[in-house]
Amino acid sequence: MQLVIPPPEVARVGLRALRMVAAADGEIHDLERRMVAAVQTHILHTDLDFDSLEPITPEELASGLPEPFREKVVHSCLIAALIDGEASTEEIALVRSYAKALGVASDVVETAQKLVDEHLLRFRIDILRRSFFGQRGADFYQHRGFRGLVTVAGNIMQIENAAMAAKYRALSKLPAGTLGRGWWEFIEKNQFSVPGEKGAGPEPIVFHDCIHVLAEYDTTSSEETQIAAFQAGTMQKDAVYGLLFPLAQFHLGVSITPVTNAEKGVIDPERWVKAFVRGTKTKIDLATKWQPWEVFERKVTELRVEYGVEPRSRTL
User: Fold this and answer.
1) For residue range 208-248, what is the model confidence (pLDDT) as tens digits?
2) C-alpha span between 303 and 181 (Å, rounded)
3) DSSP 8-state code for residue 42
4) Which of 2, 161, 188, 292 would be 210's cystine partner, CB 3.0–4.6 Å?
5) Widest distance between CA atoms in the chain
6) pTM for this structure?
7) One-character DSSP codes across 270-298
């Protein structure tokens, strides 16, 4: 997705709404302050005193917030409501009132409401359907059809597929520096199985490991939150659901995928926002439509330039 930087007066209006949401449950959490600080640094390029910002009503927000910033502010308010590690009734209610005043569809707000109401199965389904999981699944079906879905079902049920495994293991023969060889080395380093073997994830998720290679993120929980944010940044549709996935899986303790244990409090707002912004600078949607098999024989360095994957800063 492409970031559009608002003018200072519009940024201030949006930050006032963020402060209202953060304080709606009775206190502003340190994680909320840190997230807003990261947003100011990496997105808004402002340096306002968050705690001293004046309150704002839904009507005032609507009068001071033009397009194309309305949906982005609602989504930012929702993330702010969850970054403290819990879903508050008061915070989500305020986000809903802002969305209504701004004329922004409240689908994602209703998804968060399911979390508040502890309807966790429905919450998981929303994220799986709208994040990169659902979008890539639809694209996989478009390219591979029903037979492709059968192989995915086999992967999930841990049914071995020797032909599929051999196809992926053959990538080890590609020249050093190619994406395919880089993927193989990543798999070997982390002692992962390849698709078609027991213990491997479904074949459509191979792209994720390839993004690890392209964007240079490791596999610790903290690194996984960052690569998920990076992926969300590349998404052209429903990027907010791409952010809800790591929020749920690694920060709120709600398991979205069966192959990864849910954790709490992993997200570092500074690293997370920075990774998301890095993802928005890519030239293509790597999360939902990119097909690694089409470029496995190409050099990783060339692909980074072609896709606009900026070098990773090692300061964080």
Assistant:
1) 999 999 999 999 999 999 999 999 999 999 999 999 999 99
2) 14
3) I
4) 292
5) 63
6) 0.93
7) HHHHHHHHHHHT-SS-TTTT--GGGTTTS
